[in-house]
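User: Okay, second chain of the day. Same drill as before: sequence in, structure tokens out.
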Amino acid sequence: MRKLWNTATGIGDAASVALILVLFLLFLMNMAHAQQQMCAPFDEMRETLASQYHETEVGTGMVSDTDVLMLFASPGGETWTILGLNVSGIACIKSAGKGWDAGQLPAKGERGA
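Assistant: Same drill. Structure tokens below.
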């Protein structure tokens, strides 16, 4: 079987293992990227965060003229989600976790510690 593989592909054992490893890593990277890009219309995403995690919007920041980041958190910061929202109304989860601590924003003109 090994000889048939080497003859058919024209590559040796080490190159075959390397090729299989590269293909496997590409597959894993694709899977990780697909899992990171959970997107939906904003209204649906907001409803899902509210109904499943009891999260509400607690902060918003402009990224550019066309993109906004939004922070959602549950009461007490038990869970939190950061959404990226574009001008077409599609929201994508950028990050999520547990144990959000809101801290305190410095007053205008005041430097943070």
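The mean pLDDT is 80.

User: Thanks, on to the next one.
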